[in-house]
Amino acid sequence: MLYLELLIQGLVQGGIYTLIALGLTLVYGLLRILHVAHAALFTLGGYLGVILTNATGSLALAMVLTMLVTGVVGMGVYRVAYQPILDKPPYVALIASIALFIASEEIYRLVFGPYGLSYDAPPLQGVIDLFGSGMYLKQAELLVLAGTGAALIGLHLLSTRTRIGIAWRATVTDPEMAASFGIRTQRVRYLNFFIGSALAAAAGVMVALLNNLVEPTMGSVPSYKALAIIVLGGIGSIRGTLIASLALGVIESFGTIYLGSLLDRDAIAFAFLILVLMWRPQGLLGRT
Amino acid sequence: MTTPMIRPALLGLMLALTAGPALAETAKIGFNAPLTGFAAADGNSARIGAELAVEQANADGGINGQQIELVVYDDQASPKSAVPIANKLIEKDQVVVGVSGSYSGATRAASGVFQAAGVPYIAAYAVHPDITRSGDYVFRTSFVGEVQGRAGAKLIGETLGKKRVVVITLKNDFGQSLAAGFKEKAADYGIEVVAEYEYGIKDRQFGAIVAKVKDDNPDAIYASGYFFTAAPLVSQLRSGGVTVPVIGQEGYDSQKFIEIAQDNAEGIIITTSLDRDSDAAPTRTFIEAFEGKAGFKADMVAASAHTATNVAIEAMRAAGTTDRAAIRDAIAGLTLEASTGTISFNELGEVQKNVQVQVVQDGDWHRHSVISDAELLAPPAE
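Above: the input entities. Below: the structure tokens describing the complete assembly.
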């Protein structure tokens, strides 16, 4: 019973990790950039979600608007920060990304204030008694699980059933060959940033629902943990990202309880990362 | 362009400005607080509290006719920034007294610099025991964590009569010193600590801990944290089906805690320094003036920074000079009716005062009780 509850809590956390890390994996797969500033878009999503929900009174409307706006901001980040330096070595983009992320935290603090924001009337706070067993799950936690599933199914359909999705996969595999077949790789990149950023924004809104708090620094843990997840999953692999996210969520959940006095949550996550990399240096599903 | 005629005048002005406190027109109090970074919310409250103390004193005519100036620097709650800031306050700004509106790491680093320079330094709300051990020029206006932890044990075991307790500890010097004080006295009040969990300051998701606490089935929970960790923790405990009393400390003490946790905040009890229902004039005036100035309700951090700054002002007034040694002696001998109650200092420079117990009722902090057991609350003396 306790174990089942710990497992479910781990999967909820894993779902959040999945939504954040997917965008990072997509960007790395396409451009070989470690997009640390991705976590800034997660924070932006959290803020927009709270502000728009408070303004419109509708979480659903706020969620859609937040994903659209953050997606477009993500495209802007690519255009302004990455596109001009794509021909430079990868560390140049990494440094730009880290700088952008640090700047974003202070910008959020200046614009939205240091105290963080909360929903006036937090939606989806009702609890569901699972199997009538005294095991409670918040509606917001169900939304995380459902949202993660929906995002994965949506990505799968997009990449297998649509022209732009096939063009996307072709560009990931071999950008030059894809371009020579007439694929507009620039459009594919914009799409990539749009989808990745929109998913991070959704994660931001969901975390805001779980905590009823968005803060300027809420992206600081995801910024490095999402990197650990994509390395763990095998860099650039979507399926690997999913497995690594869920595994990490569950391991942290049990680890907090049974190893908490020795190692804190982040230390448990990184110890797990090191163990896996010793056994499979290419990550869980990475190709050698 | 400076013409040759103006240049000597400028030089004279610069000399006058750097000539030292004896010629300065204002008496300067140095203030370091985290105005950016993760602790910016607390730093901002503290800054407004300190500014309010200075404004109130200046409105009353300043100190012996001299106006007071608060020199504020942002230390980002980082020891690395605090040391150069302490040096700058002492060397460049020539402050008469320093006040820390910052966390333990930064305060502890700066306290050594102030001690070495022989400039009094007052920590408003930093809890690490080593801060006052820097020397006889360093004082503190808030409880060390251990003292507040002991008060928590009395509150749970005696006042509330709860005996099976789960301890949830924020893994930093604040949380760990609270837990140490709590566990030290727990047995004296018949409390059995059934389990203890720790979390990091960046954690906001406590699903796993909630599941385990439910399984432990305690009578009460003693949980340390700041409002931004405690509000999600309390909310998640409540929506996870844990209904037993949750007892916190001054880290919860902010209106923001209630805004975040909303209905889940109701009935949460904390040990702190600010009594919202106090009849004492300094506390009443502070609470009203702070809300007017800041636009939000006063919290423990603001009240502590206000108190610490007032200690500096009163000591400067009592000493009647800007001589640092005289001011240090004045602080050591001071008994002050402050916004956080009647305070004085022991031989180590630790504050002696009552613990205020507050509870959330109808969306506001209110008085629950007061703990005034001088023996239990005796701060460390060496």
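Note for the figure: The beta strands of chain A are 127-130, 135-138.
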